[in-house]
Amino acid sequence: MRLFPIFADLQGRRVVVVGAGTVAERKIRSLLSAGAQVVAGAPEATPGLLQLSREGRITLRQASFEPGWLEGAWLVIAATGDRALNSRVARLASERKLLVNVVDDPELSSFQVPSIVDRSPLTIAISSAGSAPVLARRMRERIESLFDHTLGTLAELAGRYRPAIRQARPDLRRRREFYDWLLDGPVAAALRSRKPDAARELLETALHAPETPSRGGVVLVGAGPGDPGLLTLNALRALNEADIILHDRLVSADVLELARRDADRISVGKLPGEDHDATQRRIHELMRRHALAGKRVVRLKGGDAFVFGRGGEELEFLREQGIPYEVVPGITAALACAAYAGIPLTHRHHAQSVRLVTAHCRDDAQVDDWHALAREKQTLAFYMGAGRLEFLSAQLIAHGRSEDTPFAIIENGSRAGQRVLHGRLGELADAARRHAVKSPAILLVGEVCALAPQLEWFGASIPADEAVVC
Question: Can you tell me which family this protein belongs to (predicted)?
């Protein structure tokens, strides 16, 4: 270990920054956030530092460096563009036994300023000892994605209750179990839901319980249409914290690859022709059983759970069972697949509204507002319609939509095998048969679909009248 990691308390302590340019300003603002008493100096200063000086937040000396500036300092930072001057500052600081950092010059530095992930009071610092600052920044970016911003609030809460926790759990093993529950259970979930009072009440109730409560619960996560790059940070965190993952059939393997390695993965996808209600009851039972056993369950659904995904039914069940839950939205297929096909769902010249429609309703109920769906200047997105294309196109045309209305079927949207079949509504069913369109696929109908051949950028784009290659 070349450098000894250390966190310095600079509250009210004098730090001298030689330099007053853009880089110096960035360092100074970071020092101010740590409560340092900053003295900066250079003949010229940035407008931002001039403003900080006028506000009395820093002492600014618009002059050439003098050794006397270093008197009374705890730390020194040299941030000028003159290496000879930086070297002189470093030498004078070392003679006074002061730690000095020369920006972008580890050879002249006695300490390095790390890349920081700030979840105060939790602070994570990353250093490459000055040899690869780009790598340190890249690591910071990755670590940033792993930790929710409410982690700092959780750390403050844990610190405030630390004496009470030690008193209530004098046994070290039981105290560790309690902290595991605190970090992974309903207290952390309440803070993520911006309910600090509920979090505090949960903690206080658990403190007076004879045993540490179960940390089990369910996170309903939308996985998007398939491209793992479309996962939200919250979805990625949930996958990395899961004990059990109940995933749908259409959740891509690439998304599942991002999950915690030792999590149990259970496929609960509904298959064509089976009793979907029975399958849904099985999903409910699996969520209940594993959550009550203290497991952190991720219910992973393709697209977004609240757009034709029965997510509402699952939350109703969890509420009835008294099981804690959270929801992480996903990018629904209409948004993602249209974007990957280069089709804007709205366009001021072509469409002023979007309608999301399921091609399958409960108890085989049919869409009863075909006249409204057949209006022009709107975009229709039909989910789960790959097997009903002839019916859908016939209904739209029968209720007034022109046979020349553009359509696009996006198969395997956002995935490696994406195909976009586009043409006129009157030829939809025949073209889909000839090109063997299969699920997962979403149907878009409306004037904006005419833009698909011009704006396509991902996967294959196929005109409806193109010959099928055998």
Answer: In the C-terminal section; belongs to the precorrin methyltransferase family.
Tokens found for residue 247: 């995933």
- What's the pLDDT at 327? 97
Sign of CA dihedral 111, 112, 113, 115: negative
* Residue 303 annotated in ligand binding: yes
Tell me whether residue 384 is annotated as binding: yes
Considering only CA atoms, which of 439, 444, 429, 441 is closest in space to residue 389? 429
430: annotated active-site residue: no
- Is 332 within any annotated ligand binding site? yes
Q: Is 68 annotated as a binding residue?
A: no
User: For residue 131, what pLDDT is reported?
Assistant: 80
Asked if 223 and 303 touch (Cβ cutoff 8 Å), the reply is yes
Is 229 annotated to bind a ligand? Reply is no
Extract the residue ranges of the chain whose pLDDT is less than 70: 272-273, 360-368, 469-470
Report which of 180, 390, 218, 198 is spatially closest to residue 296, judged by C-alpha positions: 218
Measured at the alpha carbon of residue 232, what is the angle toward residues 229 and 237, in degrees to the nearest 5?
105
pLDDT for position 363 = 46
Q: How many C-beta atoms surround the C-beta of residue 393 within 10 A?
A: 25
Please tell me which residue in 243, 248, 295, 301 is annotated as part of the active site.
Answer: 248
Burial letters 313-351, b for 16+ CB under 10 A, else e? ebbebbeeeebbbbbbbbbbbbbbbbbbbbbebebeebb
pLDDT at site 410: 98
Distant-in-sequence, close-in-space partners of 425: CB < 8 Å, separation ≥ 6: 393, 396, 397, 401, 402, 403, 404, 405, 406, 407, 445
Question: Looking at residue 273, what is its pLDDT?
Answer: 67
22 is in an annotated binding site: yes
State the sign of the Cα–Cα–Cα–Cα dihedral 371, 347, 355, 397. positive
Which residues are 325's β-sheet partners?
A: 218
Alpha helices in 259-328 (DSSP H): 276-292, 311-321
Cα→Cα distances 223→247, 309, 345, Å? 9, 11, 21
> In 97-191, where do the E strands start and end?
99-102, 115-119, 122-126
Report whether 1 belongs to an annotated binding site.
Answer: no
Q: What is the dihedral of CA 459, 460, 461, 464, to 10 degrees?
A: -140
195 is catalytic: no
- pLDDT for the residue numbered 275: 78
Catalytic, out of 118, 148, 270, 430? 270
Cβ partners under 8 Å of residue 384, min gap 6? 308, 358, 359, 360, 439
Residues 256-290: tens digit of each pLDDT: 999 999 999 999 987 766 777 888 999 999 999 99
DSSP H or E run through 461: strand 460-463
Question: Is residue 43 marked as binding?
Answer: yes
The pair of three-digit structure tokens given for residue 439, joined into one six-digit string: 């699920």
CA–CA distance, 332 with 307 (Å, rounded to integer): 7
The pTM score is 0.78
